[in-house]
Design brief:
The protein is globular. The longest helix has 14 residues. The termini are far apart. It is built from eight helices and two strands; from the N terminus they run ααααααββαα. 63% of the residues lie in helices and 3% in strands. A two-stranded antiparallel sheet has the order 1-2. By secondary structure, it is mainly α.
Length: 123
């Protein structure tokens, strides 16, 4: 069993998702991030790793924040929710049990609207 709740594959899949969603080309990334074409393609195909610095620069070029990446991972991989749902929804309990569907609905609404007020005011 792994200690990491978020795997390298989940992170890479989120990066690929945003590259496609934001319609950012590989040449654009290569123009602005210090990484070779082969290294970038290896990473995107799951055959290598990149440094945290390189990943951060890729995210900046794509125009996505670390929070957005984590949200995408949580939406794509509900199995990562265990402690996250408990943390986010401590005050959103229904009959003493965590209302996971409510949290999922709020995250989906936020993803579509990018309205942070949803995360704090919706009851």
């Amino acid at each position: 069993m792994t200690c990491n709740r978020i795997s390298a594959d989940m992170l890479r899949d989120a990066v690929i998702y945003f590259i496609r969603e934001r319609n950012v080309s590989v040449p654009t990334i290569l123009e602005h991030v210090e990484i070779s074409r082969s290294r970038l393609y290896d990473y995107l195909q799951g055959n290598g790793k990149v440094s945290a610095t390189t990943l951060t620069n890729i995210l900046m070029i794509i125009g996505v924040t670390a929070d957005e990446v984590m949200l995408q991972i949580f939406l794509s991989h509900p199995e990562t929710w265990d402690n996250t749902v408990v943390h986010i929804s401590r005050t959103l309990k229904d009959g003493g049990e965590v209302n996971a569907q409510f949290v999922k609905d709020v995250l989906v609404d936020y993803k579509h609207t990018r309205n942070v007020d949803i995360l704090t005011t919706r009851r």
